[in-house]
Each structure stands twice: as structure tokens, then as C-alpha cells.
Write a structure and sequence with these properties.
By secondary structure, the chain is an all-alpha fold. It contains eight helices and no strands. The chain folds into two domains: 86 residues, Rna Polymerase Sigma Factor, Chain: A; 73 residues, Orthogonal Bundle (Arc Repressor Mutant, subunit A). Helix 2 packs antiparallel against helix 3, helix 2 crosses helix 4 and helix 6 crosses helix 8.
Length: 167
């Protein structure tokens, strides 16, 4: 991983190395944002943009966070132009029991779909992708406090939705 970061800093990285190291993470991220059907296109475009703009990478965040920022913007663009759905049920993992897991995934998916786009984005980035508050803030270009607030309100809304659905 450090050799990748060093190659980026020295601008000697080739496209294959970048894709080889980060494709799976970027694809999963895109699939969670816009579904698996369009994720490959979004991931491919992310790497094309990243390679063209690699000179703009200032090492202020991790390369993964920078790529997620590009992927985030690409997914947002695709959602607007193609009216894509968000959040793939196949990529939400809950519990060990397959039957109960499927029910839980369906309930979580419904709750996520009811969230505003701003709230859904922070849940996907922080909870599903495992980014820190600071990394989410860089991807979304908002203050850390905004990330924490959106996450808090997203969880409140999801809790209300899940409680209503269980009645």
C-alpha cells in the first residue's frame, strides 16, 4: 500500500496498478450507491477520471478516500442522469441465519431508501464502507460536524422506520 502512495506522489504510477489495488473497493462502493447493474460503469469512469487527474492528488487524504470522492461524484452524476436506484440489497449483510438475514436486509434496504440522499450517503460511506468521520467529510466536502449530525439523524430516521414497519 505504501509503495502505491509513493508512486502516486512521484507520479510514476501506471493505470493498471491503480485499478489492481482499488477496483474491488471502488466497485463495492459504487454498487452500494447505485446498484450492481451500473457499478462497473461508474467504477471504470472513476479510474479514468483518477488517472487523468492524478497530478491533482495532494496527499491530504488517503488515495482510497480520494478515489471514493471521485466515485461518489460519478455515482451522483449517474443517479441524476439515469434516475438510478440507490443501495443494493445484495450488499447489505446482516446476521448469520439466511432467512432472518434476508428479512433484515429487506427491512434495512427499505429504511435506507426512505432516507434523504444526504443521510443515505453518510450511512453508506461510514457504516458500509468503513470510512472515518474525517474521510467521509473529505469525500462529501462538508465539515466533520455535518457528517456526525447527518449520521445521527439518519439513524434516528431508520430506527423510526424500522419500528413503524415492525408494528
Amino acid at each position: 500500500m505504501q509503495h502505491i502512495q509513493g508512486a502516486v506522489q512521484s507520479r510514476s504510477m501506471n493505470a493498471e496498478s491503480l485499478v489492481e489495488h482499488y477496483y474491488d473497493a471502488v466497485f463495492r462502493f459504487c454498487a452500494r450507491q447505485i446498484g450492481t447493474d451500473s457499478a462497473a460503469d461508474a467504477a471504470q469512469e472513476t479510474f479514468l477520471i483518477a488517472y487523468r487527474k492524478i497530478a491533482n492528488f495532494r496527499n491530504e487524504s488517503s488515495l482510497k478516500t480520494w478515489l471514493f470522492g471521485i466515485a461518489f461524484n460519478e455515482c451522483r452524476r449517474l443517479r441524476r442522469t439515469k434516475k438510478l436506484s440507490t443501495v443494493s440489497v445484495d450488499l447489505i449483510q446482516v446476521g448469520d441465519d439466511p432467512t432472518q438475514g434476508l428479512i433484515n436486509r429487506q427491512l434495512l434496504l427499505q429504511a435506507l431508501r426512505k432516507l434523504s440522499e444526504d443521510h443515505r450517503e453518510v450511512v453508506v460511506l461510514h457504516e458500509l464502507e468503513g470510512l472515518t468521520y474525517e474521510e467521509v467529510a473529505k469525500v462529501l466536502e462538508v465539515p466533520v460536524g455535518t457528517v456526525k449530525s447527518r449520521l445521527y439523524h439518519a439513524f434516528l430516521a431508520m430506527r423510526r422506520t424500522l419500528q413503524e414497519d415492525s408494528k
